[in-house]
Structures are given as C-alpha cells and as structure tokens.
Amino acid sequence: MLVARRELAAYVNTYWGWTIIFVALLLDGLFFQALALTTTAQYSADVLSKFFFYTGGVALGIGVFVTMRLFAEERQTGTMVLLESSPLSDRQLVLGKYLSAMMFMGLVHVLTLYMPAMIFVNGKIGYAQIAVGYLGVMLMCSAGVAMGTWASSISRNQILAAAIGGVLVLLFVFCHWLAKLTDSPFKELFSSAAFYAKQFAPFEDGRINTENVVYFVSVTFGFLLLATQSLTARRWE
Fold first, then answer.
1. N or C end of the chain: which has fewer CB within 10 A?
2. Residue 118 is part of which domain span?
3. Predicted confidence (pLDDT) per residue in 24-77, tens digit
4. How many separate domains does the chain show?
5. pTM to 2 decimals?
6. DSSP alpha helices (H): ranges in 44-157?
C-alpha cells in the first residue's frame, strides 16, 4: 500500500495524470454525445450499452499511458535501484504499482458517472445495469493494466513500454478478427480470447457471467505473474 499511495500521488500531483483524466473524459463525452445519444429513438438500455462499449475502449487506451511509467520511468530516471534495494519483494512491488494504476483508473470512471445519469432525464434504466456495466469496464481495464504493468517491467524506457502494452491490448481487442482468418483450433482460441466480442459483451447488457469474470481475472493474474518473474530475472542480471 505504501508503493500504491506513492504512485497514486505521482499521478494526481502531476500534469501528466490530469492530462490523462482530461483526455479520457473528453473522449468519453464525445463518444457518448455523437454515437450513443443519437437523434433517432432508441431504448435507454441500448444507449447505456453503447456508453459502456465506448468507455471500455477509452479505458484500455488510456491504461497503456497510465502503466507505461510504472517501472520504465524508474529505470529511465535511475531510481529503480532504490526499489530493488528496499525491503519489499518483487510481488509487493508489482502489486503496489498495479493497485496504484487501478485506483487512478477507478477515479477516472467515477468522474464519468454523470453520463449514465443523463439517461434518466428522458429514459429509465436500472441501477443494477449501471453497476454491472462498470464492473465489466473495470475487469477489462484490470486485464489491460496488468498487460501494461508487464510491458513496463521489461522495458527500459516509457515509449517502448507504451508500444508493447499497446500492441498487446490491440491483439486481445481484435482477436475476433483473427478468429475469422484462422481455422481450428486457433479459431476457437482467438474467439475465446476476444475482449469485446466474447468476454465484455454480456456486461454491456447488464449480465454477469462467471466465465467472463474468471477470464479477466485469469488474464490479470497471468500478466502480473509475468511482471513479477521479469523483475526477479532482472535482479540476477
């Protein structure tokens, strides 16, 4: 928690963190206005579903820029040796960095709550659907942040970390396209790994499926484990 608080303070006390918040809210607002609140009549539940669809995409995008500094910046500025010589294990360092990024992402999404609330002006939606939608966004965001944490742990500078993290996130987002281009067994593998088409879609409609929750938790755990192993390997270099 000490590492998490330190990193969270680094986000909210710098222009970089507030710039990310500004860009995220700007993109969410533009997508919500232009693509969700259309001029044609539609059900309130459909408007909310579109909101979570675009908000999830924005979350994955900004997650790359949030996580690129976690370890790469420490190496770039020469402060990584301070962390490595601290009485903290690699697991604690990774979890602290990961939690700080997730708390920052949670702050960003708390600031978007006014958008679903606007639907109540002319429509009617359930609070449970809103809660489930945000749960799905945070689960998918958790997987993306874990990927970014791993990318930052193996990179020597922030640009490389952002590039690796961005490619990984895009790969999982567009897995459904890869499924269309491949045959079995890769077709089923890519289809099951697709963030949007397979795993996130139920949350948009207000449905919680255990298999989708397990998938995002498993991806998060896997990449955090890789990040921990990466730090351990670097100690022996």
1. C
2. 2-235
3. 999 988 888 876 666 676 777 888 888 888 888 899 899 888 888 888 887 877
4. 1
5. 0.88
6. 44-67, 72-77, 80-84, 90-110, 114-122, 127-153
